[in-house]
Design brief:
The chain is of the alpha+beta class. It contains 6 helices and 13 strands. The protein folds into 2 domains: 14-229, Nucleoside Triphosphate Pyrophosphohydrolase (Alpha-Beta Complex), CATH 3.90.79.10; 234-279, no CATH class. The two termini are 25 Å apart.
Length: 279
Amino acid sequence: MLDLEPERQGPPPKPAATLIILREAEGAVEVFCVERNKKSRFLGGAIVFPGGKLDADDAEPAWADYSTAPRAARFAEGDELRALAVAACRESLEEAAILPVLGSLAHDELLALRADVAAGRETLRAFLARRGLRLDLGALHPFARWITPTVESRRFDARFFVARAPEGQEGAHDMAETMASFWATPAELLARFERNEVQLAPPTHRNLTLLAMARTVDEVLANAARACLDPICPELVPQGDTMALTLPGDPQHSQKEVRVIGPSRYVLRGERWRAESAP
């Protein structure tokens, strides 16, 4: 799932954005997840949240006329922050058929829009202009920032946002980058991971662990307002006959202050990275 070489000094990380979409069901929080195409070079077959690297168009100044102001975030500001939030919305449309807007969009409309944008028949800004809609960037709450380890061949500086699912938007994978999709509680996904039923990368696992602490979407959003948004860049170290990815605050990590609650490392056990405390 990860391409790690202990002696590698990988390329500079590319800016990326991810949207964690939430809803409430039967007294619990559910999150929308997609399964990445197994042929993907990065996290192939893993369960993830919709997201990806920034495109050049995400930073176009014209987006100021087609979106609300993003929420303040310590991981970016100004034009960079707007571009990240636009990217998170665009990736959500592409991979999940979910789009936060001021106004309303039906599920079938989003499926048609996604198909038209993918085929080059439509642009997202043109669609918003024609419908008199704007991206609701203010609905995105900054939640976390993870940077791919330096020993990875493909590196991303990923900012994670959380948002309440827009009313009436059900979500659907695209059968290209993503091959399956579903709503589930964070606890259910973590239990499936422990049973070796699904594959989760460390950032996804830790974000699900944090989400599992809340019982309502409002609680998640309140927790996001208090979250540490300093970058988390795991560092690879040997551990016995295997290896571990240490997080800030671990005794073997170069950053000594803790930046996220929970076990301080992920240890490779078989084909899965398990959250564990330092030995």
